[in-house]
Amino acid sequence: MSAVTPPAQSRPVAIVGGGITGLVAGYRLAQRGLPVVVYEAGGRVGGVIESIRENGFLAEFGPNSILETSTKISGLIRDLGLEPRRLYSDPAAENRYLVRGGRPVCLPVSPLKFFTTELFSLGAKLRLLREPFVRRGPAEVEESVAQFVLRRLGQEWLDYAINPMIAGIYAGDPARLSVQHGFPKLAALEQRYGSLIKGQILGAKERKARGEVSKQEAKKVSFDEGLQVLTDTLGEKLGTAVRLRSAVTRIEAADGTWRVTATANGAATTTEHCAVLLAAPAYRLAAIELGGTPAPGLAPLAEIHYPPVASVVLGFRREEVPHPLDGFGMLVPAVERFQILGTLFSSSLFPNRAPKGHVLLTTYVGGVRAPELALKPQDELVVLTVADLRAILGVRGQPTYRHCVVYPRAIPQYEVGYGRFKALMDEVEAKAPGVFLAGHFRNGISLGDSIIAGHDVAERIAGWLGQRAVA
Ligand SMILES: Cc1cc2nc3c(=O)[nH]c(=O)nc-3n(C[C@H](O)[C@H](O)[C@H](O)COP(=O)(O)OP(=O)(O)OC[C@H]3O[C@@H](n4cnc5c(N)ncnc54)[C@H](O)[C@@H]3O)c2cc1C
Q: pLDDT for 208-233, tens place per residue?
């Protein structure tokens, strides 16, 4: 078994997966003058990002917005010439609703509103004030998000703040997600400052110095024709470097190069590359054979839990939705016993998402909380979603527009014990020099995380190639 020796620099870098991570990495490498080939198994680039305009509605099936937390995100939009097409969410849509007692209640936005809100009991409010005095947990013990929150804030915060928030971000379950892997910044705040509240205040100064913005303060971004504008533009910039309908099945180290085998239209072709970036979902990477290297195989990545999520996009006549929809959307705690996880008020968030006199609501169903619901036939999904929207928002009448998309494996769950997957990825990179892994299964699950991951891994690959060229 030969280890990889200095790569032939003239060969392109192989990028496996044309989702946002792979596209950003490919674009950044190409900008540095390094040739790339992006292998994409599907017939289009973008991965889970998909925007469709139909009957005057603009439906987003996967992600709806990017949080602009880093200059790596704003810089990408600038470099692609997309600033004129960028939309920031309407400042009037900053409210967030949580469902309590069967109706949407606005999350308090100021300390005064916090003390007067009916969302939390007096006991829960006092418990928050006690948080800075709760002892930090031992750093070496991995906890679930639920254990962490119960220890620091108590049951009501878990049920009415964290449970719906986790449903909104991960479509996940706080009892299974690891605080250390799923919310590493939160775990670090406790260890560093001894308190989440103190850490929020003191951490803000350090973020500012690093040019970062917290997820709470970051602006929400999309484009005039939806998020797909970003991935379509990246695809256009990469041009013929993108090979669609090419699923990578094997990667093998041989003679100082990486031989990448991809199957397109039933025929397998093998191409030599100087390095390989693995940026497909973990359950797909698990099926790729890794040969000619002492690195462990990728098969264990199949055990990463990706629950199904259905995205139910519905248009209604404005007058049939009595709620003002003056916000980002609403999240539904599990204890409220509805079927949906939450709803985005899509037409309030960005302009031109619905024809005049109509509104657009994007609802997510399933996740770890109720995976069986996501897999129901589309008509049933619409019926159950409309039933919950009637009960919570008072919606009347039938939707004038409907479109459902099911992601059978939507979002990876960074559950307790996720460290073993991260250790495997580290070991593969260490023992198979020239193979890199990046994406939602390693660097954080948000779109912003994926853009930053694509940017950073391109730097790592360029650095590695540079070092090899000098050696
Ligand atoms: C329903 C849903 C809603 C979301 N909402 C938000 C949101 O509002 N905001 C937010 O920040 N994030 C959101 N996210 C998360 C975010 O969209 C993703 O984390 C991010 O887009 C992942 O990008 P990626 O490139 O890592 O992976 P993917 O988008 O999964 O792309 C991977 C690509 O690899 C390709 N591929 C697979 N196997 C192979 C192979 N063998 N060879 C070649 N190619 C292969 C696939 O076809 C795919 O195109 C959401 C996700 C989902 C599913």
A: 777 677 777 889 999 999 999 999 99
Domain boundary among 181, 211, 241: 211
Distance (angstroms) between ligand 1 centre and the Cα of 287 equals: 17
Cα separation of 3 and 5, whole Å?
Answer: 6
Which whole number is the average pLDDT over 405-431?
98
Pick from 257, 238, 263: nearest CA to 19:
238
Question: Over the chain, what is the mean pLDDT?
Answer: 94
- Give the rounded percent of residues in the chain with a pLDDT score beyond 90: 82
Distance 204 CA to ligand 1 centre (A): 30
In contact, 458 and 30? CB cutoff 8 Å: no
How much is the pLDDT for 6? Answer: 41
Residue 4 pLDDT greater than 80, yes or no: no
Q: Is the CB of 311 under 6 A from ligand 1?
A: yes
Looking at the structure, tell me whether residues 147 and 265 fall in a common domain. Answer: no
299 with 316, same domain? no
311 and 401 part of one domain: yes
Ligand 1 centre to CA of 408 (Å) is 12
Q: Are 382 and 402 part of one and the same domain?
A: yes
Ligand 1 atom nearest 284 alpha carbon: 38
* 471 vs 139: CA distance, rounded Å: 40
Which tops the pLDDT comparison, 83 or 210? 83
Is the CB of 63 within 6 Å of ligand 1?
Answer: yes
For ligand 1, whether the C-beta of 60 sits within 6 Å is no
* Confidence (pLDDT) at 111: 78
State whether 240 and 314 are in the same domain. Answer: no
361-407 confidence digits (pLDDT tens) = 999 999 999 999 999 999 999 999 999 999 999 999 999 999 999 99
Tell whether the model's pLDDT for residue 206 goes beyond 90: no
Q: Quickly state the pLDDT bin for 105 (edges 50, 70, 90).
A: very high
131: containing domain: 110-211
